[in-house]
Design brief:
The complex is a heterodimer of chains A (260) and B (66). Chain A has 260 residues and is of the alpha/beta class. Helix content of chain A is 38%, strand content 16%. The radius of gyration of chain A is 21 Å and the shape is globular. Chain B has a 5-stranded mixed sheet, with no helix packed on it. In chain B, β3 and β4 form a beta hairpin. Classes of the chains: A alpha/beta (260), B mainly beta (66).
Chain lengths: 260, 66
């Protein structure tokens, strides 16, 4: 079981709810993924089309909602969004996201740390989205983050875990759960992160824009489970030297002597 | 009175509280969160949040996001 801030999660796949073609496809994909944690964003109500309510489609009590602070460009904006999210959700779970540059959507490490310090003081369960920087992960952990969420690649790029070298160090050092977030574009990427020892992965675009998001959600669920099982089982070491899988003794002699 | 709601200033008639405003806008109070002059109105307190000429109101809700 994965435990974050005292809450247990059977599923190690977290789902983002953005970019689905319809609320019903989103709800079916979430069900197929068997996830228990879903992220949501906060936006101004479109007063010309006020009937567009995601929470109706989701069913409020079935999942842990992890509101994000997407759109925030600095700590101040993120803190404002966090308090709005708590008023809206009635819970303190928060994915802290501070992305000043819309082109890269890379997180601002300084503002993220400042916001984490303040939001922990304000009683939030803070899961900061961060670049895959092992030192920053320790700083966020020390500031009271409930988990850290290093990126595999920039948001929505489907590039996979390009940051594996640093993510491995983060996993090795962290005392809080590590959730690989962003960039995971295929079930194999998710399995790779889990094989490395990530505690969970967060996936959105790869599922929501797939040809069949519901089938893709099921594929990710299997991959996350396979990767986790492999990690727990203990992965073999990589080597440059070949090592025979078949026995090297008891080979046939004479004609097949070349086998010796 | 004139209110600036989600960045647009409009004239509203017969409105006293945030609840009145939400009804006028066809919004169910339990689906939104409201900021009144940058102060968050806790859900359940919309009735007692009185609006005045020139106030700024932000009406926000959850949408899909990653």
């Amino acid at each position: 079981m994965l435990t974050i801030a005292g809450t247990e999660f059977r599923s190690r796949l977290f789902l983002g709810t953005g970019k689905f073609s319809s609320p019903s496809v989103m709800a079916e994909a979430i069900a197929a993924s068997d996830c228990q944690m879903v992220t949501v964003a906060l936006r101004r109500v479109n007063l010309d089309d006020p009937d567009d309510d995601i929470m109706k489609a989701l069913g409020l009590h079935d999942y842990t909602f992890l509101p994000n602070t997407s759109g925030a460009r600095d700590a101040k904006e993120a803190i404002r969004l966090a308090h709005l999210a708590r008023a809206a959700s009635g819970s303190s779970w928060l994915k802290l996201e501070v992305t000043p540059d819309p082109r890269t959507l890379l997180p601002d490490p300084v503002e993220t740390l400042l916001a984490t310090e303040q939001l922990v003081k304000d009683g939030f369960i803070v899961l900061p989205y961060m670049n895959a920087d092992p030192i920053l992960a320790l700083r966020l952990q020390d500031a009271g983050a409930a988990a850290v969420m290093p990126l595999g690649a920039p948001i929505g790029t489907n590039q996979g875990v390009l940051t594996d070298f640093q993510v491995e160090i983060i996993i090795e050092q962290a005392k809080v759960p590590v959730v690989v977030d962003a960039g995971i574009g295929a079930p194999s990427h998710a399995a790779y992160a889990m094989e490395m020892g990530a505690d969970a992965v967060l996936v959105n675009t790869a599922i929501s824009v797939a040809g069949d998001p519901i089938a893709m959600a099921a594929a990710f669920a299997k991959a996350v489970e396979a990767g986790r099982t492999a990690f727990v089982a203990g992965m073999g070491q990589k080597s440059k030297q070949a090592s025979a899988s078949s026995p090297e003794s008891g080979m046939l002699s004479s004609d097949l002597g070349f086998l010796n | 009175m004139n209110l600036t709601v989600n960045g647009n200033t409009k004239l509203f008639q017969d409105i006293k509280t945030v609840t009145d405003l939400l009804i006028t806008l066809n919004l169910e109070p339990e689906t939104v969160v409201v900021e009144h002059n940058t102060t968050i109105i806790q859900p359940g307190s919309f009735d007692s949040a009185h609006l005045a000429e020139g106030d700024q109101v932000e009406i926000i809700r959850f949408v899909g996001g990653g």
